[in-house]
Structures are given as structure tokens and as C-alpha cells.
Amino acid sequence: MRNIGADVTVVRGDVCHMDDVIQTVSACNKTGYAIGGVIQAAMRIDADLFHRMSSEAWHSVIQPKVTGSWNLHKALEVYDATLDFFLMTSSVSGSVGSAAESNYCAANAFLDGFARWRRAQNKTAVSVGLGMIEEVGFLHENPEIEAMQLRKGIQPLNESEFLQIIDLAIAESMSERNNATCYDLTKPHILTGMEPMGIREGFEGYSSGVGEFAATDPRMAIIAAAMTAHGATESAKPHAKDLEHLAANIPWLKNVNLHAMASLISKIDAPSLEIGALALIRERFALMLLTVPDEIDNHRLLIDFGVDSMLGAEFRTWLWNAFRVDISFLNILSSGQTLATLARKVAENLAVKG
């Protein structure tokens, strides 16, 4: 930054501590330049299922975004009239959720709401809900989590696209401040990384991973109904025929229903219906737990993975969408249930009902 002519002053501190924030604002004032804006990018990750999450883990993730943003808001109150931007880096998880990151989801949801709250007071603010940044940062250093986000339909941004989005958010904030007497409350939240075609596949029932979360999320009910109605045309028939043609030479696949066939077509190398279903179920279960399939033991009891009522309900809905097989909620949460026994039940149901 200095090489391109910027004056850089580094102040060590913690945005969660008000004294450190005030010290940083004081350091800015000593430069002799007006404070033009702030970028709040503090974050921490400490993932676990909610019922196993410690209070310390919850607050350690919440505080950088919640307490940190509030401290910046209070410390910069006297500069609000001239502040060009107040940008907070949020996450797509604040909108779509994530089973093992309730603390992180809540923290980002706060940022999205906080940006609207500031705008309602005619103060500049924007919360940028980022998906994946594929060339730098946390997800770049954790490729297994990046792969899981891709399966959920969240698409990556490269570094150049990320910087363009930040530039757009800042420019939008400056335009609002200069030209509006009352801020537009539709603009303080910019959501990135959602892939429309993946979401459509989820609604149509032809995807076991990408976009499937949208098909089962009640918050997506209106758009789901619209997209389903739009897709209910004759154009869907060739797709069904293509699936049947592909499955014709796979004995264990050709007699199952169309939804199961569409889900299982990616497992055509499996030697049997049960093994193919198990592979697919294992992938989905790993996705729900934010881990990789290789870390999942097919014969370990589901309750030992920490499957609670929320995950059980989500898993049951997915089983129906993927296979059109209804496994009872109590069955999924029963003491003897494993992925292997679950796959056997699915295969038995498909074999009987087709």
C-alpha cells in the first residue's frame, strides 16, 4: 500500500475492546486527515453443533462482529455526518444458515440487520454477504469446506471479483450519502455467491446436493412455487426420458422412481442399489455436519454424531426429496440407526415401490 502512495499506520488492538477502538480512531485523527470510512472485517470461526457448543465458543465468534461493530458505531458517532462508508463483511451463511455454525450465522445475521438499522437513521452502512473467496483467505486454506459450500450451490469469487464487490459497495454508500435525504433500506445488504441454476435444480428435485437446501427451506417457499410452476412444462419430459435411457443398462437402477433415479445416476458404478444409496446418503450427511465423507463411519450410530431434532428433520426432508422414501422422524433418531441401516431401508422401500 505504501508503494502506491498510501500512508499506513498499524494500531494493534482488539475491536471487541472499546479502549482499543478509541485508540485507533485517535491515531487516525493524528494523521491530520478526515476519517472517510471504516471496513469492519473482524471474524472468528469455531464450528460445532449447537447442542454441543460451549458458551465460550459461542461468544468468541459472536463478539468480533456484534461487539466489534457496535464499538465502531459508537466510536465514530461524531463522524457520521461526513463518513463516506461503514462497510461490514458479512457472510451468505447469515441468510441461508449452516448446521454446525449457528454462532457464525447469528453474528452475520446481526451485521445484515445492523446495516439496515444504521440506514434507517440516515447513517451510511452496508453489509456485504460474501460466499467463498477461492484464491485467498480462510476457505482457500480449507479446501474441504470449500467443496461442501460448492455442493450447497454457493459459488466462489476470485480475488479480483471480491475487490470489485467491495468497490461497488463503497461507491453505492457514497452515492446514497451524497444524493439521498433518506437512505433506501433495500440497499444496505449485498448478497453474493448464490448460483441460480443450482437453486433451480434443487427445486426441480434433480440434485442431491447443489441447491437442495433451497428446495427445503421454508424461507424460499414463494420463489420455489414460482420456479416450480415455470418448470412444469413439456420440456421436463425429455429429461425424464434421458434418465430412463441412461438407467436402462443398470439393473438395480432401472426400476426405481424418477426422483431416486435422478439422485442415484451419479452412483451408477455402485454394484447395488443399497451401496449406491449409502454413498449418496453418506455424502449428504457429511455435508450437513460440515465434514468430508471419508470422515463418516457408515456403521456409527447417528446419535453419536450429535444428530438432534433439527438435523433429523432436515435429513428426513432430504431423504424424501432425493428418493421419495418416507423414513419416520423417530426412526432416524432411534438408538440403533446408522447410515448403513438407513441405506438398507431406503433400498428396500425403492425395491418394493419402485
From TrEMBL:
Domain of life: Eukaryota
MF terms in GO: fatty acid synthase activity; oxidoreductase activity; phosphopantetheine binding
Keywords, alphabetical: Oxidoreductase, Phosphopantetheine, Phosphoprotein
Record-annotated Carrier domain positions: 272-350
Pfam families found in the cross-reference section: KR, PP-binding
UniProt record, GO biological process: fatty acid biosynthetic process; secondary metabolite biosynthetic process
Protein name: Carrier domain-containing protein
Organism of this sequence: Xylaria grammica
